[in-house]
Structures are given as structure tokens and as C-alpha cells.
Design a protein that fits this description.
heterodimer; A: about 240 residues; mainly alpha; B: about 100 residues
């Protein structure tokens, strides 16, 4: 099905996929380090990158769990809610790929922000399919290797606070949020959610403030006029807005 | 619940959501309201995580310490279009530096 594509275009798509995979894979190092700092073992950290495989959800999971094992249900809930968007990407990607059986299982597992962004950004379907698979596989391999490096490095360190790893986690959430703040409504939802979560923190068990704040902000955002936040949210070259 | 149970459960749910997206007819989620909720959900969750991770302690108290300064620097870096890894490393360096100077 991909034979229709000119060799030049094919190379261009593969090059784009590789650059996205390298950029994304690199921050698997920070995930690995933060995860062991949060109290997970190296094996548990690696299992998250292999099996959960969705950056935002993984950061959220270890972030909530850092407060203690009692936060486990809230960690699962936060990670799962953040994963809802991958389901939406799946809708677009399945139409693009048209695969079944084992290939569909593999495609589903690789359906994340980056693979979807590169896939749907291509003007022609064969290029989109190459872009999705190359980016998905590339990110998966590099993200997992980087996770291992980060986990081993983090494990060798002492108190994570000395190295500012708690602040690094906060900054990581900031950087994940940043590309989504594309409208006044998005900004209002974010501000409301952050304020409610912080105000609630002294009065609720770990992880619960995040869930309550997010649902409150969502409810408030529901009756506001639609904000524009084109899925998928990541743009890699600054001008490649999917149309 | 053990950490392993949580890891495997979260992983199973993450895959179920991804796979569900590949299975259901696309028309299911084309509604305007659905689109609004699903695009607002990550914004609300990530913002709440930023707030909690920056300003609260493990015991639930609200404090302004080196983390707030580090996140401030991270936001400036994001405004200057710094890549993810630079933002994260910069924030860690700021917090580590301030703590080395004796600040909380």
C-alpha cells in the first residue's frame, strides 16, 4: 500500500519521524529519573514505559504516587483520564491505517501524541501511514532506552530534592501543558484547575485534589463557548499546522 | 494496593482506551460537546498537577519554596521556545542551586 509513494517523499517522512522520535525519546531520561525519585523501582519504571507508553500519563502516575502508596487509586485515575485523548487519536489513526488483528493491537499501543501528529500531518495517506509507524516505533524504542538510562542515573543519586528533581517534575507538567494553552478559554480552565487543586491540597488525601480540580474546571469550561484546541496538540516545525 | 498492581492496572486501562479508539465508529465522538470536553481534560489535569507539584508539600501544606522559583524560570524558558529537556533540566538546576544556598 505504501509503494505508491515517491522515494524522495518517503525519505522526507522518515527523516521527520526520526527527528520527532529523537526529541521525544530524549525526555524519557527525565521520566526515568523522576520515577525512581518518586519511589518506584527501576523495573516498575521500565514497565510503565513499555506497557503504559504515554508520556503525560506516565509523568502524572509517578507524580501522584510520589506522595505515597496510598495515592495509588488516584494515580491510576489521573493517568487514565489523561489517556482519554489517545482514544480520540485512535479514531483518526484507525481510518488512516485500515489494519486489523495483531497489527491493529500494535497500532493501538503506538497511538500517542507524536505518532498521531506526524501521521495526520502528511498530505497523502501512504505518507501518513509511514509517518505514523516510523514515529511510533522510533519513539517507543528511544523512549524505553532513555527511561532505562534515567532510572539507572536517578537510582545512583541520593535525595532527589538535592538535585531539584521535585521542581523538574513540576516543570515537566508545565512543558506538557504549554502547547495546549492556545486560547483564552484553555488558559482560564488551566488557571481555575490549578487554584482549586492547591486550595484543596491541605484538606484531601494525595491525588484527590488533582481529580476534583480537573472535574470542577471541566464543568466550568462546559458552558463557556467552544475554545479552539486542534487535536493533536503538538506541532513540530512551528508551521506544520494540520489543516 | 501495591505499586505493581497500580502499574499494571494503569497500563491495562491506558491500552484499553487506545484500542477502543481504534474499534469504535468515528461518528461516535464527533459531537461538539464531546470534542470540547476531551480537549479540555488534559489542560485541566496538567494544570492541577503543576499547581500541586509546585506549591504543596507531601503532608498537604501549601508553601512557596525553591520549586516556585524553578517553575518561574521554566515558564520563561517555555516563552523563549526552549525544548522540553532544556526546560526540565533548567528547573532542576535552579531548585538545586537555591537549596545549595540554604533556601527551602
Amino acid at each position: 500500500m505504501t509503494a505508491a509513494l515517491a522515494p524522495g517523499r518517503r525519505r522526507a517522512v522518515l527523516r521527520q519521524s526520526l527527528s520527532v522520535a529523537v526529541a521525544t525519546g530524549a525526555y524519557g531520561i527525565s521520566f526515568g529519573a523522576l520515577s525512581v525519585a518518586a519511589g518506584l523501582t527501576i523495573l516498575q519504571t521500565q514497565a510503565l514505559s513499555l506497557l503504559l507508553f504515554s508520556g503525560g500519563s506516565q509523568f502524572a502516575f509517578v507524580g501522584v504516587l510520589a506522595a505515597g502508596p496510598a495515592g495509588a487509586p488516584a494515580a491510576i485515575a489521573t493517568s487514565t483520564l489523561l489517556g482519554v485523548r489517545n482514544g480520540l487519536y485512535g479514531l483518526q489513526v484507525s481510518r488512516l491505517l485500515g489494519v486489523r488483528g495483531a497489527r491493529r493491537v500494535a497500532a493501538a499501543h503506538l497511538t500517542i501524541d507524536e505518532s498521531t501528529a506526524v501521521g495526520v500531518a502528511q498530505p497523502e495517506a501512504p505518507a501518513g501511514r509511514i509517518g505514523f509507524w516510523a514515529t511510533g516505533i522510533g519513539v517507543f524504542v528511544l523512549w524505553n532506552l532513555a527511561t532505562l538510562v534515567g532510572a539507572l542515573a536517578g537510582d545512583a543519586m541520593g535525595d532527589p530534592r538535592t538535585y531539584g528533581l521535585d521542581a523538574a517534575a513540576a516543570a515537566a507538567f508545565c512543558a506538557l501543558l504549554w502547547p495546549r494553552l492556545r486560547s483564552a478559554d484553555a488558559f482560564a480552565i488551566a488557571a481555575a484547575s490549578a487554584v482549586v487543586a492547591v486550595l484543596l491540597a491541605p484538606h484531601a488525601p494525595a491525588g484527590v485534589p488533582v481529580l476534583v480540580a480537573a472535574t470542577t474546571a471541566l464543568a466550568a469550561g462546559l458552558w463557556r463557548r467552544a475554545h479552539r484546541d486542534p487535536p493533536p496538540p503538538h506541532h513540530w516545525d512551528g508551521e506544520g499546522e494540520p489543516t | 494496593m501495591t505499586t505493581w498492581t497500580a502499574v499494571l492496572l494503569a497500563s491495562a486501562l491506558a491500552f484499553a482506551l487506545k484500542y477502543l479508539g481504534h474499534l469504535v465508529p468515528a461518528s461516535w465522538l464527533d459531537g461538539e460537546r464531546t470534542t470540547r470536553i476531551t480537549s479540555a481534560l488534559p489542560i485541566a489535569l496538567l494544570a492541577a498537577l503543576v499547581g500541586v507539584q509546585t506549591l504543596t508539600t507531601r503532608s498537604g501544606g501549601v508553601v512557596v519554596d525553591s520549586r516556585a522559583a524553578a517553575v518561574g524560570v521554566a515558564i520563561v524558558a517555555l516563552l523563549l521556545r526552549a525544548p522540553f529537556i532544556v526546560v526540565v533540566v533548567l528547573a532542576a538546576a535552579v531548585a538545586a542551586g537555591l537549596r545549595a544556598l540554604g533556601l527551602p
